Amino acid sequence: MSPAQSSPAQAREAYDVVVVGAGFAGMYMLHRLRGLGFSARVYEQGGGVGGTWYWNRYPGARCDVESMQYSYSFSEELQQEWDWSERYAPQAEILKYANHVADRFDLRRDIQFDTRVERAVFDEQANAWSVKISDGKMVEAKFVVLATGCLSNARKPDIQGLDNFKGPVYHTGNWPHEPVDFAGLRVGLIGTGSSGIQSAPIIAEQARHLTVFQRTANFSIPARNAALTDEERNAFRNNYPEIRRFAREIARNGIHAEQPDRGALDDSEDARRAKYKARWDRGGLTFMSAYNNLGLDLAANDTAANYVRSKITEIVKDATTAKLLQPNSHPIGTKRICIDTDYFATFNRPNVSLVDIKTNPIEEITANAVRVAGTDHEVDALVLATGFDAMTGSVARIDIRGRGGRTLNQKWAEGPKTYLGLMSAGFPNLFIITGPGSPSVLSNMIVSIEQHVDWIADCLVHMRQQGLATMEAGGEAEDKWVAHVNEIAHGTLYPQANSWYMGANIPGKPRIFMPYIGGVGIYRRICDEVAAKGYEGFVMTRAEQPRRVVTG
Ligand code: NA7
């Protein structure tokens, strides 16, 4: 395989690889492909790089993984030269970093912005994909890599009357590029996941009044965000090789942190409280790593959940509001735990109120109010922090047709089926970065992205060296992997929550636990072993005839 040609005047553009999306996955994929001499084109629906961080510009948006770890590790120069300002980088800074990476590695010349991939059809004669993009052009590619992101299809809720609302309506996942000024306005915020919990305190500072409409109370841990000192930055920089190795190979979630050595019930109540207090005071996602069985054993989980509930009671002055803010419908951690700055304390402000929409769902949105249990809560602007069609939503928006013209949506109608989260049987030469069936959203995304990109890059080199034309997941290997992913998930408490991990936030979406929960280290070893055994479980075919040049 060599960089594809498109010599005849009317020939379609042809590439070795078309990459869909220029977020962190697409950018690194492009960088690797180029370095290996493959021709590649990236199509990105946004007007710039950054993916998640391009779209999620809502007030208070920041990553819940610490910035020194939520960063690429592939370039030593890059990780030494970039100065993160805070423990948790705000959205604007992560976007700046993404732009810096695009410039530093000269990526933009191979990225076409403001362009959606609408359709990809596998041509079984040519062993290549025919890709239709939104400017009407068709391009041909030997391989397609979906770097479409796990949380990139913002979901507008199906609430009666929403379109009748007269004021502005914002979705946190599709926020305007211009600053939004809530000064003097009564704002209604629907949704109390990570985006709602991050934005509520900031909106409350600006708005005349903020009404938070809560369907499910959520567990949230203080971020304890602060400016990073040189000393803290250097502690990472001087130890990056070991920190990165640990994150990749040891930590279940791809984050370097102190690992638990026992279960919650192995400690006395006093010792347990002291441990939770220390984690609470330190802040951040690692609260859940206080013990090694919080995701497995309900009695153990209850001890952590009770601790957080007690903190909510301590912080929130009004007893009824405090009670309502205490999560009771799912074990802690089985919905992505949130990391906040002053979320619970925000409800002590006189200009903030909380409305329970679990007991009484929103009846209707009128021109100027949200109606709940017959009461109109008047608002001038609405913020929808209602989440995403996660993990499969962005893939489903592309009309992907594999062998026999079968669409990926047809194949995934009962839930996504992949081998290792990387490929789906019947769809040759189509790779997914951090797809369902891989650790993806249960991990530090950049760790998982780099692992998948490197694995795919090695695989393409192998195919080139061996003169192979196609590669696809074998049906049997895929079935076994899907069963394995399910079996592991059902050995944990995770499926007990109505979470977006389960597709439960989208009416009609099949309830399947989508990410692989076995841990990034174990998963990486499995992927490496599969590759070492000649891509065991995948089916590869040889090129029987030279590649056809398709004319338009
Ligand atoms: P999430 O975590 O999916 O949160 C969405 C929130 O919106 C959640 O509280 C939902 O309640 C609520 N929601 C969704 N639809 C409705 C309707 N129709 N009516 C009322 N409330 C609704 O999305 P985020 O953007 O906050 O975070 C996504 C991830 O980004 C996060 O986990 C981090 O990894 C970063 P529900 O819980 O479904 O009852």
Tell me the span between the first and last alpha carbons.
22 Å
> Which cofactor or ligand species appear?
ligand NA7
Shape: globular
How would you name the CATH homologous superfamily of the domain at 13-153 and 390-542? FAD/NAD(P)-binding domain
Largest sheet composition: 8 strands, mixed
The CATH topology of the domain at 13-153 and 390-542 corresponds to FAD/NAD(P)-binding domain
Q: How many helices?
A: 16
Low-confidence stretches: 1-9, 545-552
The CATH architecture of the domain at 13-153 and 390-542 is 3-Layer(bba) Sandwich
Care to describe what's here?
By secondary structure, this protein is an alpha/beta fold. Among the domains are: 13-153 and 390-542, FAD/NAD(P)-binding domain; 257-316, no CATH class. 31% of the residues lie in helices and 17% in strands. It is built from 16 helices and 20 strands. The longest helix has 22 residues, at 445-466. 49% of the residues are buried.
